[in-house]
Write a structure and sequence with these properties.
With 147 residues, this protein is of the alpha/beta class. It has one domain: D-tyrosyl-tRNA(Tyr) deacylase (D-tyrosyl-trna(Tyr) Deacylase, Chain: A, 3-Layer(bba) Sandwich). Helix content is 23%, strand content 39%. It is built from 3 helices and 8 strands. Strand 4 and strand 5 form a beta hairpin. The protein is globular, with a radius of gyration of 15 Å.
């Protein structure tokens, strides 16, 4: 699985103008299931993100995790993280999991992250979504369970 993690002061996702998920201080997590991914990858990624030390401690160093801070998470499905741009000008997405697997793993990831403590809200899988965020730092980190 792949994820693009952004430390935020706030983020929300809307579908057809209606807000369906939001978070205050914490993380916006764009996530993509890849072909061959399993629930084990979703759980591994959730655990890694929950423990990722990208929040400031009392000394101003990035030394605290999402679970340390009590922050929330907004998890949004993003199959375009599977983009293959090695040939031509049109990205290919054939390495993304099929939609039924992608949705199952996306939801499993969100539940696994919530089980670790953070308040987790989500977007709507497969919907045209508008994501609004205020990146804090900015801090943006790419994670891939295959790497």
């Amino acid at each position: 699985m792949r994820a693009l993690v952004q430390r935020v002061t706030a983020a929300e996702v809307a579908v057809a103008g209606d807000v369906v998920g939001r978070t205050g201080p914490g993380l916006l997590i764009l996530v993509c299931a890849m072909q061959g991914d399993t629930e084990a990858e979703a759980e591994k990624l959730a655990a890694r993100i929950a423990k990722l030390r990208i929040f400031h401690d009392e000394a101003g160093k990035m030394n605290r995790s999402l679970t340390d801070t009590g922050g929330g998470a907004l998890v949004v499905s993003q199959f375009t993280l599977a983009a293959d741009t090695r040939r031509g000008n049109r990205p290919g997405f054939s390495s993304a999991a099929p939609p039924e697997d992608g949705e199952r793993l996306y939801l499993h990831f969100a539940r696994a992250l919530a089980a670790l403590g953070p308040n987790v809200e989500t977007g709507v899988f497969g919907a045209e979504m508008a994501v609004t965020l205020t990146n804090d730092g900015p801090v943006t980190i790419w994670l891939d369970t295959e790497a």
